[in-house]
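Hey, resending since the last one bounced:
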Amino acid sequence: MQSVARADFASDLLSSRLEELQQGWPPAVRLLLSADASIYDYHPYLFAPAFPGVEPRKVESLAVAARLFASFIFLSDEAIDGPAEAAFGPIAPLRSAAMQFEAYRLLNELFPAGSGFWPRFGGYLRDLAESCVIEAEFGSGRRPWRQFTEDVAKGVAIKKAAIAKASVTGLAELAGDAGPARILESAVDHYNVAHQLFDDLHDWKKDLRRGQPSLVLSRLLPDGGPFGADALSPEQVGGIARKLYYEGHATHVLRMSLVELGEADAALVGLPPILFGDAIAGLRRRCQDLEADISRIVAQNATRAKAQPTVQITTRVVAGRPWEGIAWTALDHTLAEWRRGFGEARHLMNFPWDQGFSGATEVQAGDVFQRSLLAETLCESKRLAGPELEPAVEHEITYLLGRMQTQPPGGWSYFPELPELPADADDLAQMIRLLCISDRRELVPGKCDPALLALLETGAHPDGSLETWILPAQLRLQSQQRQAHFVELAWGSGPDPEVMANLLHALHLYDATRFAAALERGLNFIEKTQAADGSWSSTWYHGPFYGVFVATRALAAARPSSRSLRPAIEFLRTSQLPDGGWGVGGDADALSTSLALLALSSAPPDIAQGADGDRASRARRWLEADHRAEGWGGCPFIKMDVGRASGGPVVTVLYSSRTITTAFVLRAALAWDLRDAGSAC
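The structure tokens again:
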């Protein structure tokens, strides 16, 4: 029902009435914070059946006013929590004024000055202001966090969202029937408490950085601070996270939410069916799923800790080469994360049911690509640390083979438990590479060939490129037909150069003779897609350096005479920053620097320059200075341009991980240590 409401009401409201209002304002003074649909797009419609007889046009006007006020409150909330200018630009106050003006104009048309609506509405605004003052007192330290009790948290949540009750009050006034209003307002209060608690749990890290009080944080940090982006180390934040999930605080807050939702449901007994009941049910399911997910992860980690082999490096051979120190440091961090199950590297992303996704939970976790990268890094590190790393490699490969898709033709999916996402060439390439470099090549035919051959047979294009998604061209199962639909709707079809380059290198490692024709055509495609500056664009990765790394790696291995290598290496030379690092947007970061170093290390002898060693040394010094207690910080790595496939507005979602960044630092150090060792021979 919620999705029906969104389609029937929200779309029309946003595209017609709101755009009409927008015409009177400069384009920069947008009346909505985003085009994303939310419950406030159609809020009065949640309750309208309880007030029959209200004219549809008046309900529509009330819905537009509710959406404008919701945007105003969200904007004000950001301004209070952290400067609005940083998030929304210097015109945020003008946008806020425009939202209020248009909302009040609509409400004034609906309710004359003497209407009973206005005293109630004024009370809601006063409640909102009071809740903001209370939060500010706790956030500033004027009141100790231990006083932010459950009762205080509930009171703040009710007052902070009080204006949502204006939908009920407005409908009652328009219908001339206040009978259902008191019951519905009680249900709204309970729902808002539950929603606030759920949001607090979801946003606890952001609130921690901002010093924003919540019941979640007051349980974890009864004495408050320190707060701020750099006030707590990742180790301290990790300790807070373990306390949150492993000592039952998260479960307690979720169960509080479920109790509130039960009260909201009970309040609706005796009323006609309304969409608000669906909203309650939807939030209940999200709470229950999150509670189950937390319980499952805690249990899995306990099992993993018992089953995980012990890996200790007992001997450290140091020959005094300049890259060894940073390599050992990065390896120590990587092993520490491995002992924790590489949990920090998991990519969590929301795939809402009301947008057509059908995962068992809305939040999906992906770690196949990440853990295959990390296992490959551990394999390469055996050159530094010896065979004592082999149990860790074996453990990771066993896990990854267990994540293979069971539906023919197999392969691996980035989010393995999301039914709408098919297996892909990038994950397949990673697994082929991992099995080859870990001396498990004999497993590749049985584990990887079915998906690989399906891709080569059905995903090939005349220009030598391949589709990223692995789907049969014909005789698709119903689940595969659904995946194909979502490829066109959400993921996007066609080749992705960086995925192609990764796969081509995997084919070269696996069997260059057997796949000679595919390699020839594919490498031609890679050369043709090189940009004028020598780089390659990436569909799924942030910045140019990952694309340059995988393309130069493939070309240097399978076609070392390629004319594309020289401009690619020259791009790296000219894009190095004065401080020695590489980065996107003018500032160096550890991930871009490591990827650039890896690409630079692959330069064939006829392209390599002696000055490249000096460039690498400057980059090493930058990386050494950028090192932190927990390793190297997370940098934007994987990107998803939501809306690209459908041709709508594009919102880029970025994934970063300090574990992945640190692993690439390790790989770069190993590559240059090997190069230096070879030069010294």
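The longest helix spans residues 275-307.

Sorry for the duplicate.
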